[in-house]
Structure formats: C-alpha cells, structure tokens
Amino acid sequence: MLEPSQRAEAADLLWAAQRDRVPVAPLTETFPGIDVVDAYEIQLANIRRQLATGVTVSGHKVGLSSKVMQQMMGVDEPDYGHLLSDMVLSEETPVDTGRYCFPRIEVEIGYVLGESLPGEGCTIEDVLAATEYVVASIELIDSRIQDWKIGLADTIADNASSAGVILGAARVAPRDLDLTDVGAVLYRGGEEIARGNTSAVLGDPTEAVAWLARKVASFGVRLEAGHIVLPGSCTRAVDVRPGDDFRAEFAGLDSVSVRFA
User: Fold this and answer.
1) What confidence score (pLDDT) does residue 63 get?
2) Given this model, what pLDDT does residue 169 score?
3) In Å, how far are 15, 116, 120, 151, 164 from 221, measured between CA atoms?
4) pTM, 2 dp
5) How far is residue 75's CA from residue 78's CA, in Å, rounded to a whole number?
6) Residue 70: pLDDT above 60?
7) C-alpha closest to that of 85 among 226, 215, 219, 223
8) Are 187 and 246 in contact (CB under 8 A)?
C-alpha cells in the first residue's frame, strides 16, 4: 500500500493529466507498491475535487465485466468508476475529441434506476425491480495514462477510464426484454465494425449492476434513483478520430448515435 502522501501525489498527477490533456506514465510504474485499495482512494479523491466544482454524480459504470478482460488483468471481479453530470453527452451535439487524451467508445445497454438499490445483498431481482428502463448507450472512455498502458490499479485510479456516455431515445422496461441476450452492432460511417451480445457481460449484465451495488456499499455509497448504470461493453473498444460518425443498433432497443469533431 501507498503512504497518504503518495496517494495524494498520484491523484495530483491524474488531475493534471485530465486538465491539461497530457497523459502520464502508468501509476503502477511510478508507484510500484500501489494496490486496489490505493487506486479506489485515488479515484475518490479526484471525484471529490470534481464535485467541488459543482458537477454531480449521474451514475456509475462497471469495467472489466467480461471474463476475457478479467483474465488479461489477472483479476476475478470487475472494477467501477463514476459518471458525472458533465459526462452525460447528447446525440445532437458533436463531441470535441480535443477534450480527451486517447478517446475510445464501447457499446452497452444502460440501466436507469427508478428506485435506489440496496447495497449489501443486492440481487438481480432487486435490480430489475428498481430499474425504470433500459436504454441503448455508447460509452466514451479515455485514459489519462500514456498509450493506454494500464494495469488494474491504473484504470481504477483513473476513474475506470470513464469519460462520457450517450443515451439513445428509446426507453424499454426491463421486463419487456431478455437482457441476457441482446445483440448489438456498431457502425462507423455506415460500415459495420463490431458486433456483440449482452451475454458477454458476466453472462447477464443485470448481475454486473447487482455486483456494483454490493461493491460500492463497502465505500458507503448507494446507487440511487435517477442514476445511470453502465454494466460493461458487449463489443470491443474502438478508437475515435475527429470526423467519425458512429451508430450502435440494439435488438429490441433501437439505436444510439454519436459524432466526433
């Protein structure tokens, strides 16, 4: 574990990297003793900084929710990050790529809660009962670590590489869709570039939301009514370039689009 002064230094490095759009060396290299507890404390330190500027928490995202990614990182559970109010983007407004270091997008369904979730002991049934609707979404991810050379502690400290989310217009009650088997196809400029299925997310993305509710409870946090929860991507991540125009189509959920300037 790191000393409190080292955690503060690591948080300062990530804060400056995001502010200046100048990525830093992996924290796992700069601070060889960093562990997962350190990483979450670093993440929370910078979230508190952002909240002090007037933004609010709009939800959370789950990362490393596929078994393949967990094996790559050498872990046996996902991680999580915060979605803040200034990260909720519109389909109607092109996204400025200059705001980010190494932007990428991922395709996933989003859960919008109508009621707060319990923490410890939260189940799939609890999530389905509390979810007001699910929605097609594109998550924008970014790394403030040079060249995406991230270990587990790097991505956790860097708010699980969170950067933004775009939600589609269609709203569907979770009872009206088999959430374990929703196919998704991602197009760039009309050309298919990736496809996947929600079954890639822990076999059931609702389980990822329940895991998240249980996990954040250990930090004294609840997933609250009105929050957006992103359970993890059902396709590979795709690099973003200025001028790119993406559309993600979901079986039973319509589509969501985003343009980059």
Assistant:
1) 82
2) 96
3) 22, 11, 11, 25, 21
4) 0.93
5) 8
6) no
7) 226
8) yes
Integer Cα distance of 43 and 35 in angstroms: 12
Q: What residues does 16 pair with on adjacent strands? A: none
Helices (H), 79-151: 124-130
**Confidence band, pLDDT 50/70/90 cuts, at residue 128:** very high
DSSP state string for 29-48: HHSTT--HHHHHHHHHHHHH
Closest alpha carbon to 64 in 179, 256, 233: 233
Three-state DSSP state, 82: strand
* Full 3-state SS string of 189-211: CCEEEEEEEHHHCCCCHHHHHHH
DSSP at 2: -
* Residue whose C-alpha is closest to residue 66's, from 9, 97, 106, 35: 106
Report the half-sphere exposure of 261 (CA within 13 A, side-chain side): 7
Q: Is-contact 11 46, C-beta < 8 A?
A: yes
Token pair for 240 = 């973003």
131-141 and 104-113: which strand pairing? antiparallel
Of the candidates 25, 62, 8, which has an alpha carbon nearest to the alpha carbon of residue 200?
62
Question: What's the pLDDT band for 75 if we cut at 50, 70, 90?
Answer: low
Residue 224 identity (one-letter amino acid): E
Contact 130, 114 (CB under 8 A): yes
